[in-house]
Amino acid sequence: MATGYHAAASAEVKVGDTVVVMGDGAVGLCGVIAARMRGAKRIIAMSRHVDRQELALEFGATDIVAERGDEAVAKVMAMTHGSGADAALECVGTQLSLDTAAKVCRPGAIVGRVGVPYGEDVDTSILFWKNVGLRGGVAPVTTYVRNILLPAVLNGTIHPGKVFTKRFTLDQIQEAYDAMDRREAIKSLLVIHDA
Questions:
Q1: What's this model's pTM, rounded to 2 decimal places?
Q2: What is the spatial distance between Cα 132 and Cα 141, in angstroms, rounded to a whole number?
């Protein structure tokens, strides 16, 4: 949850914004929650998986875009009447995801990047030509948890635990990872001891 929140904070999501969330894993879905917490009016979740789309909508997404690449950009631009999003949360780490995030943003917007980069070389020239900022990195988890997220969970404002869609015991660790790799689980929960 803290990493998804860091994406929204890095992108400076504010009240009334239109936000595009790249990635429908646990971090992207928590990015949807964070965008809603910060007051986004429209949250466009990029997702191809029905179970994740449903959870994104439950968490506050207003729209789902299943397309990728240029088709996704065209769809988001049409949805925003050609102006683009106020912010994008990049929760994947691929060049395609970063490019799409930059292309769906309006000039002056910020991409909050928390997706762990795949590969060493990343081309960010699109950011320059579109006048889109890039911020992010490893989340300062303790700060967000203590000051914002734990109170929101405890008072029932947010329910990020719904990203745990399958339970496993510690001796099933490989199956837990395999379930996530096969997209059978959004996030696997390891149960050490049932109380």
A1: 0.94
A2: 25
